[in-house]
Design goal:
Blueprint: H1 10-16, H2 21-25, H3 38-44, H4 49-60, H5 75-107, H6 113-148, H7 160-166, H8 170-184, H9 191-231
Helix pairs in contact: 4-9, 5-6, 5-9, 6-8, 8-9
């Protein structure tokens, strides 16, 4: 497992892992990076290198465990990053997915009942995902912010364990949607549009998995440690 460090050249990493480009955009970093190291790019954009490295390494490696670096930055940075990820899903990924699915449906010849069922499945999934994002933004993130701001949470019935129990695997249904298309779509559609749609779904699925891993392996352990200290104070 190749874990990147602050002295690695960011443009070289992106050349190998183009899926990280939307990730660095969430830090306000755009392309045109020349040969600057991660440390230099982070300094240019007022980003903590340890936090940046934790995020990109967690995106690239399923088994990445950043325990040694968790105390070098605040959980509030992760909350802000996750909010930007949610905005990326709401403002770009979901509208783009819906638009491409509509194009695929329009390309189909005949009654295309299978595609209509796929569209209905996607609509239900979109509702569930938005509900999941709303729950994080209205309950989980404010709880963490109150905890970090030393607000009085005694008697608060919520804890990060509630989040762990409620944290649904929203990426699984994206895979189900891909399987529906691959197995059951009637072969009377535009192949290029279908291939492009499946590629988008795969990238979205991977981003959701990374999103969940950052929450589970980075954010939750940090918040648990803070809760433990507050409870013993």
């Amino acid at each position: 497992m190749e874990v990147f460090n602050k002295n690695d050249v960011l443009s070289r990493i992106l050349n190998q892992h183009v899926e990280l480009i939307p990730v660095i955009n969430r830090f306000g970093i755009k392309l045109g990076l020349q040969n600057k190291t991660i440390s230099e790019v982070c300094n240019d954009h007022n980003v903590k290198p340890g936090f940046f490295l934790t995020i990109i390494n967690a995106h690239l490696h399923q088994d990445y465990s950043p325990a040694s670096s968790l105390r070098s930055f605040s959980p509030l940075l992760i909350v802000e990053y996750l909010r930007k990820t949610h905005a990326y899903y709401r403002d770009y990924i979901l509208p783009r997915t819906k638009h491409m699915l509509e194009d695929l449906l329009q390309s189909c010849e005949g009654d295309c009942e299978e595609l209509k069922l796929i569209k209905a499945f996607y609509r239900k999934y979109e509702e569930e995902l938005i509900h999941h994002l709303d729950n994080e933004e209205h309950n989980v993130f404010p709880y963490i912010e109150n905890l970090l701001n030393n607000d009085n949470i005694q008697g608060h019935c919520y804890s990060i364990e509630n989040f762990e129990k409620e944290h649904s695997n929203v990426d699984i249904k994206i895979n189900d949607l891909k399987q529906l298309i691959i197995k059951y779509i009637t072969p009377s559609y535009n192949t290029n549009q279908c291939n492009e749609f499946l590629t988008l779904l795969s990238r979205f699925e991977n981003d959701l998995k990374d999103h969940a891993r950052i929450e589970d392996h980075v954010l939750v352990p940090m918040v648990k440690e803070i809760e433990k200290k507050r409870n013993h104070a």
